[in-house]
Amino acid sequence: MVRQYGFYFNAAACSGCKACQVACKDHNDLQGGLLWRRVYEVAGGGWEKAGEIWVPKVVAYNVSMACNHCEVVVCGLACPTKAIWKRDDGIVLIDESRCIGCRYCEWACPYSAIRYDAATNLVSKCTFCVESIDAGLAPACVTSCPLRALDFGDIDDLRKKYGPVNRVVPLPDPESTKPALVITPHKDTAEAERRGAEVANWEEV
Amino acid sequence: MAWREWPLVAFTLLGQLATGIYLFLVLPAVFSGRPFERVAGRNPLLYVLGCVMAILGVAAAASFFHLGRPLGAPNALANLRTSWLSREILFELLFIFFLAVLAFLFWRGRGEGGLAKTAAVLAAGVAVLFLISMARLYMVPGVPAWNRAATPFSFIAATLVLGSLGGLAAGGVVSRAFGFAAAGYFLLSSPWGRVLAIVAAALVAVSVVGHALLTPCHGVLGRRAVPSLKPDLVPPAVFFALRLVLLAGGGVVLLAALRPALKGGPPGEGVAVFVWVAFGLAATSELLARFQFYFYARGGGRR
Q1: CB A162 within 8 A of CB A152
Q2: Which of A82, B95, B98, B107 is the most buried (most CB within 10 A)?
Q3: Inter-chain contact B227–A197, Cβ cutoff 8 Å?
Q4: Residue A47 CB neighbours (<10 A)
C-alpha cells in the first residue's frame, strides 16, 4: 500500500527536450497554453576574469516540475470550497464540481502547479495520471522521458533509492509544503545561487 | 497586469474604504453623539451608514466578477477552518449584517441606546477581522513578493488613509446636505472634525514613509523576491514614484484645507473641494499601489 506517491527528477540527466511536458499535454488533452508539467530552463552567471583572460562562468540546467502532491496541501488549505482533496495514496486532486474559479489555490501553490483553464474558467493541475496509477501503469511524463530523468513511486522508497534532496534553485523552500519530490541535482546547482541563476524561459512555462 | 484582477482591486480598495470610514466616522459618532446630532428628526449618521453599506455592497458585487463560476459563490464559506478567503467573506457578511442592525436602530430612533453601541462595537470587531483576513489571505509562500510586511502595511495604510479622508469628504457632503454647515463645512468647524483632519494628514505622512521603505523592489528596504517559479518582474518605477507623489500631494492639499481651521477660524472658502481633491489624490495613489500589488502575482501579464 502506497502511503504517499511522489515524483523523482534527475536534473543531472535532463536534457530539456520537454517530452514530459508534451506527453502530459497529450495524455490529458490539455488546451493551448495550459501546462500541468513544465520544464524550466535555469541559467545564470557571466564572464569572469581569471588572470589575464576572461572566461565564461555560467550555470545552466533544467527543472521539470508538476504538482508535487505535497504532504502539507497548502492549496487545499487555502481553497474556500474544499474542492482540493488528497487520496489515501497521497495524490492531490481537484473536484471541479466544487471549484468556483476564485484562483486562490493558484496563488497559494509555491510550485506554480495549479493553472487557470480558460476553457472552463476553473483551475486544474497534474492528476498524477491517476487513472493510469489505478490501472497499475506509470504517469505519462515518466514513461515519455527518453533519458529516464523522471521516476515515480512511494516517496519513502524514492528517498531510499535517490536520497533526500527536494530543492534546487529556483524551487521554493520545501518546509511549508513538504513536497513529495526527490531530486538529483545538476552539478551546476551548487553555483546557481551565487551566480544569480533564474528561470530563463518564462514565455514557455 | 492581468485585467482579470481588476475586480479584486475594486473589492479590496472599496472594502478598505468602507472599513476606514466606519472606524473613523461612524464608530466615534455613535459613542460621542457628535457631530451628527439629529436635525429635524433625521439623523445624518443613518445616511453615512447607508454610504458605508453601499460601498461594501459594490465591493461584494465586484468580487463576483473575479470568479470563474459566480453561481458557486455560496460554497466559498465551506472552509472556515483553514481558508482565509472563507473567513474574509464571512467577516464581510457579518460586517454588513451589524451595519444593517445599527442602521435599523438609528432608523427607529434608538441610536443612543446600549443596543446600538453593542452593534457598533460588534461591527467594528468584524470590520477589523475582515481587514486582517484580507491581508492574511495574500501572505502566501506562492507569491514571495506578497509574503512580507509590505502587504499588511499597505492594506492597513489604505484603510486608514482612505477611511479618514473619505470620512472627511463624506461627512462634509452629509453635513452640508443637512444644512449643518453655515460656514460651508461642518466637520472642520468642530474640534472633533479638526482632530480627524489632523489624524488624516498624519496618516498620509506615515503611509508615504512606509511605502517608500517597504514596497517590494522599489522601497528602501523592499528587497527583490527570492528566486521562485513565479516570474519576478519589477513593475515600472514610474508607478511607484507617481503614487508616492499623489499620496503626498493629497496630504499637502489637506493641510492647505486645514490651515484656516487650525488657526481657530472658520473653515475657508471652498474647503469641501480641497478635501475631495485630497481624497481623490490619495484614492488614485492607492489605485496605482493596488495595480502594482497585483502586478507581482501575474508577472506583469506574462501569464
Answers
A1: no
A2: B95
A3: yes
A4: 11
In a domain, B302, yes or no: no
Q: Where are the alpha helices (DSSP H) in A4-154?
A: 19-27, 74-78, 104-108, 130-134, 140-144
- Yes or no, beta carbons of B69 and A103 under 8 Å apart: no
Query: B5-27: per-residue pLDDT in tens?
Result: 889 999 999 999 999 999 988 89
Residue pair A179/A1 in contact by the 8 Å Cβ criterion: no
Task: Determine contact, residues B244/A125, Cβ cutoff 8 Å.
Answer: no
B229 touches chain A (CB under 8 A): yes
The number of folded domains in chain B is 1
Q: Residue B160, SS3?
A: helix
What is the 3-state composition of chain B as percent helix, strand, coil, each rounded to the nearest 5? 75, 0, 25
Residue B100 lies in a domain: yes
Q: Is the dihedral of CA A39, B229, B1, A76 positive or negative?
A: positive
Candidates B79, B133, B138, partner chain A, best to mutate (most A CBs within 10 A): B79
Grid cell for residue B286: 492607492
Beta-strand pair A150-154/A5-10: antiparallel
C-alpha cell at B27: 464608530
Buried b / exposed e along B283-296 (16+ C-beta atoms within 10 A): bbbbbbbbbbbbbb
Question: Beta-carbon neighbour count of residue B195 at 10 Å?
Answer: 11
pTM for the whole structure: 0.90
Residue pairs between chains A and B whose CB atoms are closer than 8 Å: 113
Contact B72 A108 (CB under 8 A): no
The residues pairing with A93 across neighbouring beta strands, listed in sequence order, are: A85
Residue pLDDT, tens place only, B188-218: 666 767 787 888 899 999 999 999 998 887 8
DSSP label at residue B227: S
Cell of B40: 429635524
CA distances from A156 to A134, A164, B112 (A): 19, 10, 66
CA distance B302 to chain A (A): 7
Task: Let me know if residue B80 belongs to a domain.
Answer: yes
| Chain A residues with a Cβ under 8 Å from any Cβ in chain B | 40, 65, 74, 77-82, 98-104, 106-112, 116, 120-123, 169-173, 176-177, 193, 197-199, 202-203
pLDDT of A191 higher than 50: yes
In a domain, B202, yes or no: yes
Domain of B181 in residue numbering reads as 3-295
Question: What ranges make up the beta strands (E) of chain A?
Answer: 5-10, 38-50, 53-65, 84-86, 92-94, 115-117, 122-124, 150-154, 181-184, 198-199
Residue A41 β-bridge partners: A62
CATH of the domain at B168: 1.20.1630
* Nearest CB to A110; choose among B85, B228, B302: B228
The partner residue sitting opposite A102, judged by closest CB among B66, B232, B302, is: B66
